[in-house]
Amino acid sequence: MSEISAQDVNKLRQMTGAGMMDCKKALTEAGGDYEKAIEILRKKGQKVSASRSDKDAKEGSVFVRTSSDHKRAVLIALNCETDFVAKNDEFQNLGKLIADTAFEKNSPGKDALLSEKAGGLTLQEKITELVGKIGEKVEVSEYVSMEGEAIVPYIHAGSKLGVLVSLKNVGGANVADAGKDVGMQIAAMNPVAVDEKSVDTTVIEKELEIAKAQILAEGKPENMVEKIAQGKLQRFFKDNTLVHQAFVKDNSKTVAQYLDSVSKGLAVDAFRRVTIG
Predict the structure, then answer these.
(1) Domain ranges of the chain
(2) Cα dihedral across residues 229, 248, 265, 144: positive or negative
(3) Which of 37, 57, 107, 147 is deepest in the core (most CB within 10 A)?
């Protein structure tokens, strides 16, 4: 790779919040690979911003449709290049049409959805038609379909972020407010999974690798590394899995405890978080 530029360094700094020199060293060591550079920074004990994925966000809106019995919902993200277009009536109407069609047809995936017809044209043709009018790239970046005992949507202010929460053990209780509270939690805290059992094994392996590198860098005895690393992993689960996180509206409770206080046994079955960008 060619020499790391100041622009490359600044981009990593914006992504992570780490110092300029640390970013340059990490990028050089990683051969210019941003994700590897982030891992290097973390291994060296740098505090890396958890919100780095939102730094280069494109524009657009999320759209949601939910069945009257709250057992099925769809969520789509429609992207464009500028906020001006995102607020345009034609763009908004197209997003609503795509969401309506996705819900009506129950399309199995994004490709199938874009092939669905509405008003004599496929949705992809509708998108192409709008691109010709506004001169900006427009695309469906995310399409989520969810079924469950009770599906509650949450759309964050500005319609740049949407969440679907599937609750179980509802037992006839009205869980709309609880579901929105949990959706707000997911929007704000961006958990990696529902609980430790649903965290991807590659994420666990990476966290253990980073923890061990940090521990050795601190000069801890090698025979203590595994035990301390497991402790750090448990802390990771506490901070980054939904049910173990402190509830944003009442830090004295975890999300799991909050839901149980709403209705005994009420729990999260699944969730999806979609952001523009």
Answers:
(1) 1-55, 57-147
(2) negative
(3) 37
* Tens digits of residue pLDDT in 59-96: 999 999 999 999 999 999 999 988 998 999 999 999 99
Q: Residue 8: CB partners within 8 Å, gap ≥ 6?
A: 27, 32
Q: Which CATH architecture has domain 57-147?
A: 2-Layer Sandwich (3.30)
Which of 144-169 are b and which e, b meaning 16 or more Cβ less than 10 Å from the residue's Cβ? bbbebebbbbbbbeebbbbbbbbbeb
Q: How far is CA 98 from the centre of its chain?
A: 21
**HEC sequence for the chain:** CCCCCHHHHHHHHHHHCCCHHHHHHHHHHCCCCHHHHHHHHHHCCCCCCCCHHHCCCCEEEEEEEECCCCCEEEEEEEEECCHHHHCCHHHHHHHHHHHHHHHHHCCCCHHHHHHCEECCEEHHHHHHHHHHHHCCCCEEEEEEEEECCEEEEEECCCCCEEEEEEEECCCCCCCHHHHHHHHHHHHHHCCCECCHHHCCHHHHHHHHHHHHHHHHHCCCCHHHHHHHHHHHHHHHHHHHEHHHCEECCEEEEEHHHHHHHHCCCCEEEEEEEEECC
Domain 1-55 has CATH 3.40.50.1240: no
What is the per-residue pLDDT across 122-133, written as a single tens digit (0 to 9) for each?
998 998 888 777
